[in-house]
Amino acid sequence: MLATTTRLGPADHGRTMSLAEFDHAEADAGFRYELSRGVVTVVEVPNPSHLAMQHAVLRQLYAYDATRPGVIQLIGPSGSSKMLIEHFESERHPDVAVYKTAPPTDNSTAWAVWVPELAVEIVSSDSRHRDYDEKPDEYLQFGVQEYWILDAERAEMLVHRRVGGRWKKQIVKPPELHTTHLLPDLQFSCEAVFAAAK
User: Fold this and answer.
1) Residue 2: what pLDDT?
2) Sign of CA dihedral 75, 29, 54, 40
3) Exposure of 26 by Cβ count < 10 A (0-12 exposed, 13-18 middle, 19+ buried)?
4) For the stretch 134-164, what's the b/e string if a residue is b when 16 or more beta carbons lie within 10 angstroms of its beta carbon?
5) What are the mean pLDDT values of the chain's consecutive 10-residue runs (198 residues total)?
6) Which one of 9, 67, 78, 98 is separated from 27 by 20 to 30 angstroms, measured CA to CA?
7) What are phi and psi of 126, to 5 degrees?
8) φ, ψ for residue 30, nearest 5 deg
C-alpha cells in the first residue's frame, strides 16, 4: 500500500504537523512554507525590496569567496537549503546560509545534521516575530555560530554570536562594518543592504 503524501497550501497556515510529515509534504507553488514549532507557517513570496536586500548580502559574500577561496564551502540563498531542527519541531529556510564544511554524503539526512556556520534573515513585516523571537533559540540549539538579522525598518543589523553556548548580541548600524572570525577579513556593510531596499 502506497503512503499518502501530505499536500500543503495557503489554507494550511496554522495547522499543526510533525516535522517528519512536514519534511516530506508537497507544497502548492506561489507561497513559502516553514514549520514553526510544530505549526505550519505560510507566507507570501517576499517583495522586490526583500529580494534586493538578499542580493546585496549575497553580492558581498560571493565577492569575499572569490578573493578568499577555500574559506567558504557553499553559500545557500533562500530556498536552496534548510534546517530540520528536531528539538523544536521546526523546519527553517534562512534567507542566506553560509557553510564552511562540505555536505554529508548521505542526502537523506543532510538537512538534519549539516549546520551552516552563519545564518542570515532579512526581516519582512510577516517574519518579525519568527526572526527575532523564535529563530535565535532554534539556530543556537542547531549549532549555528552566528545569526544575523537585517532590519531595514530599524536600519540596523542584530548580530548573534555564539559564546559559551549562548548568544552574545551586537547591534551594527550604518556606516559601521561588521567583522567576524568566521570569515577573516570580511568587512560586511549593512548600509549597502539597506540602500538596496530603496
Assistant:
1) 47
2) negative
3) exposed
4) bbbebbbebebbbbbbbbbeeebbbbbbbee
5) 74 91 88 89 86 97 97 94 95 97 94 97 92 98 98 98 97 98 98 96
6) 98
7) -95, 0
8) 95, 0
